[in-house]
Amino acid sequence: MTVAIKSWRETRKGKRALDIERQIERSMNERRSLDPRAQIIILIAMNLMATTPTPMALDIIGVFLAAAILVYCKRLAAATVWLVVYVIVWLAALLCAMSADPLFVSSGAMLMMMRKVFSIAMLATNLIFTIRVGELACALQSMHVPRLVIIALCVVLRFFPILGAEASAVVQAMKLRGIRLSLKNIVRHPLKMIEYFAVPLLLRISVVTDEIARAVTVRGIDSKHKRTSLHVLRIGVAGWIFLILVAIFAVASIVLVRDEITFMGLF
C-alpha cells in the first residue's frame, strides 16, 4: 500500500510538471517573441552602427527593420506609434536645419541625434516588454555572461514595468481624491504635484526595491551552483532571418560609409 501511494505521488508530480511545461509552451506561442539572445545581439549591433556616419537611407531602413521586429512580436500598435513619432522627429529636424537661427540649428542637431538612436530605443523597449526575467537570465547564462551582470540586468528589466504600474496606481489614487496630474496643475502648483505624486512614488519605489531584493534572494540568485530554468530557448527561423538581415544591414553600413568616423555621424 505504501509503495502504491508513493508511486501515485510520483505520477502526480510528473503530471504537474508536464502541465507546467504545457502552460509555458502555450504562453510562449500566444506571446510570440524573439529569442533573448537574438534580441541582445541585434541590439548590440544596432548600437555599434549608430556611432558610424551612415547615410539617411540606411537609418530609415534600420528603423523599419526594428518596426518589423515589433510587428513580429505582436506589437503592431507600438510599431505604428514609433514610426509616426520618427516621421515627426525627422521632419522637425529638417525644418530646423533649414533655419538660420543658431538655436534652431542646435535643436536640429539634437533631433538628428535622436533620429540616429531611434531604432535602438525601439529594440530596447521591445526587449523589456516581450522578454521575461527568467528567459533573460537563461539566455545570459548560456552566453557565459558574469553573474553580477546577469543580476543587475534582471533587476533592471523587472524594475521598469513595476515602476510604471506604481506610477499608474499613484495617479489613480490622486484621481480618487479629486487631484489630476496635468500640465496645467504642474505649472500652477509644482510643489503640490511633487507632494502628491513624486513623494508617494518614491516611497513605493523604496518598498518595491526591498521586495525585489528579497525575491531574488529567495530564488537563489546568489547560489554558486549553475542556475536551472524552465524555459527552453530556441532562436528559430524568424530569429535567424532577423539576424541575417541585421548582418546585411551592418555590412551595408560599413561599405557605404562615405566620410571619416565622426560622433554619431553628425559632425
Word description of this protein:
The chain is an all-alpha fold and 267 residues long. It has three domains: 1-31; 32-132 and 234-267, no CATH class; 137-230, no CATH class. The protein has eleven helices and no strands. It has helices spanning 2-31, 36-49, 56-72, 76-98, 102-116, 118-130, 133-142, 147-176, 183-188, 190-218, 236-255. The N and C termini lie far apart (82 Å). Residues 1-6, 8-12 and 259-267 have low confidence and may be disordered.
Keywords:
disordered N terminus, mainly alpha, disordered C terminus, 267 residues, flat
Fold topology:
Blueprint: H1 2-31, H2 36-49, H3 56-72, H4 76-98, H5 102-116, H6 118-130, H7 133-142, H8 147-176, H9 183-188, H10 190-218, H11 236-255
Helix pairs in contact: 2-6, 2-11, 3-4, 3-6, 3-11, 4-5, 7-8, 8-10
Mean pLDDT: 76
The unreliable regions are: 1-6, 8-12, 259-267
Question: How many independent structural domains?
Answer: 3
Report the portion of residues in β strands: under 5%
DSSP strand count:
0
* H-E string: HHHHHHHHHHH
Biggest β-sheet description: none
The end-to-end span amounts to: 82 Å
Number of helices: 11
> Helix share of residues?
over 70%
Radius of gyration: 24 Å
Principal-axis shape: flat
Structural class comes to: mainly alpha
Describe the structure concisely for a colleague.
By secondary structure, this protein is mostly helical. The chain contains 11 helices and no strands.
